Amino acid sequence: MENEQVSLSRYGKTFQENLCQLILLDRPFCDQITEVLDPNFLELRYLRVFIEIIIRYRKKYGVHPTYKVMTTIIRSDIDAYNLATQKQIRDYYARILNTEVDGAEYIKDTALDFCRKQILKEAMIKSVKLLKTSSFEQISSVINGALKLGSDNNFGHEFLKDFELRYIDRPRHPVSTGWEEIDRICQGGLGRRELGVVIAPTGAGKSMILVHLAANALKMGLNVVFYTMELAEEVVGQRFDSCISQVFLDDLPNQKAKVYDDISKIEGKLIIKEYPTKSASVDTIRAHLERVRQRDFEPDMILVDYGDILRPVKSNTEKRHELQEIYEQLRAIAQELNCPVWTASQTNRTGLNAEVVTMESISEAFSKCFVADFIFSLSRTNEDKVANTGRLFIAKNRNGPDGIVYPVFMDAANVCIKVLSARVSQSMPTGSSESIKERMRKIRRKK
């Protein structure tokens, strides 16, 4: 075979460097491709050495090396190579630390296809020689053996082989809520692949909360997709205008120049998509996101206003089962697109006048609480709405404490929402002489 046929050089240096990084990062992929990868397929010597180090470690210790293990090896155990190669290996390793591979699936598929074809070519050449002796069974064995190599052999997390992987610190890359107090207890915000749920009675401000969360992500320079099932796209857009510029909703037409100047400084990009109530399912959202991504818009956060009024993919006799499935599918989108997803849920009647809304007040399907990673509720009495106050209760928090009540300042006129210190809530008046702490004690006694 000609040299160009058995080299990955045609794909370029970046492709080959990313491939080697994926081999280190992804143990199942490493298992798969090392069955068909000849290190000599790599054009650059320092990458060939890098792969040989990984293969040797796996054979000797029976586990896949981690970044920490590779750091130790590269620092102290590559003296056998010349100084130029040592420097290239260390420089390459420094570049890939704490970085992600763009287009990982394409690189995996392309590299596997290339390597498997080389193995199959070798098998076919060997089979031609076997034809002279009419060894049909041998020919079949050689071809079938080549076809099996490099096939998908990811059976999941293998307890022994993946021992080291269990001790890797995996960053959540949380997106801030814009509230320091809330970020503090959930380790920086809602992380990738996580589902957050806002619970509130009708008219309390669920949509306003979601707009605040989305606007804060935009200020961070992130791409946001906002789905609305109740309000027109333009109405939701005006709420974003008001939230970002702090111009009152009623005054937006008179201050268009200021609003435009403020929103034009935002680095993040926003898409607002409206669907009529109960007309869109999670599959509808998934299809829309795929079209959005085809336009080179990669969502960093997705918000659905709100999950309870999505149409179930499968109709069920009981509404609670339909709602549970909707929330499970929303979390699946968060996992598929590797980004946080926020949605809202409406309380039942018991939450309408509650001082603090707990998960007991969640409408219809309590089981949807099990799916979410972070849940907080918003409660506002009539007196609160007049005084622009309210209470935010942390109902569930996988990454920190829950059961905490925070006082809230909330002005719906310009979508200004602030969460105050929980310490203040111990004595902050909210329409009666009882403190929040005393009310929470009563709620616990009732359970």
Mean pLDDT: 83
Shape: elongated
Structural category is alpha/beta
Strand order of the largest sheet: 3-2-4-5-1-6-7-8-9
- How many domains is the backbone divided into? 2
The amount of helix comes to 40-55%
Using the 3D structure, state the CATH architecture of the largest domain: 3-Layer(aba) Sandwich
List the helices and strands in order: HHHHHHHHEHEHHEHEHEHEHEEEH
Give the distance, in angstroms, between the N- and C-terminal Cα atoms: 76 Å
- Report the CATH topology name of the largest domain: Rossmann fold
Q: What is the count of β-strands? A: 9
Number of helices: 16
As residue ranges, the low-confidence spans are: 424-437, 439-444
What is the level 1 CATH name of the largest domain? Alpha Beta
- Main beta sheet: strand number and arrangement? 9 strands, mixed
Strand content: 5-15%
What is the name of the CATH superfamily of the largest domain? P-loop containing nucleotide triphosphate hydrolases
What tags apply to this protein structure?
Rossmann fold; 447 residues; alpha/beta; 9 strands; DNAb Helicase, Chain A; 9-stranded mixed beta sheet
